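Review form for a predicted model. The reviewer records the input and the model, then writes brief findings.
Reviewer: anonymous (R2)
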Amino acid sequence: MKKLLVFLGILGTLLLFLLASASGNASTLSEYYKLILTLNGILLLALAILVGSRLAQLLKRVKSKVFGSRLTIRMVLMFSLVAVLPGALVYTLSVQFLNRSVETWFDVRVDNALDRGLNLGRNAIDYQLNDLQRKANVIAWDIHDNSMSVLLERLSKLRDQTGVQEITLFDKNSQVHAHIGNEYAGLMPNLPDRKIISEAERSNYKAIESDAEHGLIMRVIVQLPGSELSNRVKLLQLIQPVPRQLAQDAELVEQVRSEYKQLSQSRAGLKLIFSLTLTMALTMALLGALALAIYLSDKLAAPLSVLAAGTRAVAQGDFTQQHPVISRDELGILTHSFNRMTRQLSDARDTLEQNQAEQAEAKAYVEAILGSLSAGVLSLDEDWHLQSANHSALRILGLDPNRIGTLPLSQWNEAYPSLTAFFAHTIHGFLSDDEIWQRQIELDAEKRVLLVRGTRLTQKIDGSEDLHGYVMVFDDITELLSAQRDAAWGEVARRLAHEIKNPLTPIQLSAERMEMKLVDKLDESGAEFLKRNTQTIVKQVAALKQMVDAFRDYARKPSGKKRPLDFMQLLKEILVLYEAAPIVCDFKEHGSLMVNGDPTHLRQVIHNLLQNAQDAIADAPEQRICLLVEKDEKWARLYIEDSGKGFPADLLPRVFEPYVTSKTKGTGLGLAIVKKIIEEHHGRVQVGNATGAYVRIELPLWEETTSG
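Model under review:
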């Protein structure tokens, strides 16, 4: 933009100078006035296009609300007013002065003075011409009767006396009879053409003619007296040059008068040319000033726009903005202050980010610790709203933070009715006077037991405690309690097996000996009575021994050796013993299912489950036992489902506990032993009700076990 303005300024100045020079008629450029005017018009159009495009861009920036555009257009208007007002005033005064000056140039007195000067010059020349005619007449009378022998001598004297330049005597046929001239005359006479000769025959001829060599000359032709009576008319011609100074003055007056008349006739055109030139110069100057105003306004507003852009970037968090200081004025000071501010903000942000990173690292460390805990942790604010919860807490309680939303703890039961008791106990604990409270809460729906500890979060300020919220830590101790019960039952079973089994054998032997010693000494009825009671004692002792053996099996530590075995092959071998049972098998083509287990214990598990299923369908209208074997990436699964009545709802949560059974006979140790053996094999067991009761056991595949 700067180079373009400089180029247009130089070109405009040159064209305006040429236009001003061509405005005068006396200028050598006047004939190129139209061409120069056209070039100025083209330059003016280019300036108008440039200014128009820049103004359009500026208005577009104003509509787009670009920062600094309003200031730029305001400065453009101010610069334009500064240029337009003086320019308009000078233009108005110049036009008026020009019109008055032009009118003054063509004053009537000047016109009259020129006419009189021209008449004066003409009169002086006419006087000399008349004088020359008079001399011609005198000479003609003097020589009209001279003979040719004395004619030349006489003409020479007369020329010397009269002072004329050239005297020639010739006839109408242009035949020269005599010719006398001074040193300025040519060797040959300057004869007129036939037309002038014809005119001289009719009457005397006098005229002022222009000669290329001598300038203005006076020519006078008269007839010799008496020659018209003869057959040959003789003509006397006198030629005298007009005095050079008089000729020049007359020519100058004539030229000035002609130019004056021409200018006087074209005064309206002169006014138009001068006005057009002045208007062109003014318009070009105004457009140039406007273009310069736009350029300067942009230059002045550009640093402000840059600072505004930097301010917006800082507002959006970009503190890297640094702008060069290109001046030492107030704008430079402002730029320097802006750079210093951004550096300070950047340093402050770096410090803040470092602190936040340290806090985030500490928070992540705490969250990692909480996330790795098997215990659940919940934190609440002072209004009982959930603040944070680790994964274990959400898993144990089955909570969804999105479902809880902004509900306080007292309303969580609306989203989770099954946890109403848990929420009530926790609220009661927090409202108690204990600083740290502990509860063992049972979830009725799942028969799970949670050990919950809670405390209030307080901070002492000015000697008083300020409440900031609550925190609770809880863990699912159901398995722990189950393990404790299993250990207790194992100890009971071991003691029972030890204390009960020892007296059973003497009792059985004593009963059998009594029968053997006394049966022969009693009558038939007595002997029969003795045998019946003895057999009863023996049978009950055998039953007690069987029960003691079951307790012993439950209480003893795992025995046997585990080895890789094909679970499918083991299952098929066992099912051979149950060919008469209504068992429906669904064995998919899994091939071999290799597990790491003890065959004896696994046989005991399957026998117990199949025996329980047979007992369950004994009184069922439809007797059916379904077996299903599945396999996934890590587990071998066995489903056993019967068509019986299923487990009673009140016993289902405790079916793996000893002495928990719905049978009229039995010890209730079958499923407890199954659970114990499966857990010894690192497996899982699950029971439930579908069409009847079902049991699902899962054993880890041997490949996974060895690779792990």
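Findings: Residues 42 and 534 are 143 Å apart (CA to CA).
Further findings: The longest helix spans residues 267-315.
Recommendation: see findings above.
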